[in-house]
Amino acid sequence: MATHLCKDRALVNDWHVVADCSAIASDAPFSTRLMGVDLMIARNGGGMSIVRTDTGQPVCSEKRYGFVWACLGKPERDPFYIRESDEADRHLLSGGSIAVNVSGLRLVENFLDMGHFPFVHTGFLGEEPHTEVLPYTVSIAEEDEILATECKFYQPIASPTAQQGMQVDYTYKVIRPYTVALYKSNPVDPSRMDVIVIFVQPLDEDNCVAHSYLCYLKDGMDASAVRSFMQLIFAQDKRILESQVPKRLPLDPRAETPIRADVVSVTYRRWLEERKVTYGAIPFRTASGADSRDRMEG
Ligand SMILES: [Fe+2]
Question: What tens digit of pLDDT does each residue of 119-137 get?
Answer without folding.
Answer: 999 999 999 999 888 899 9
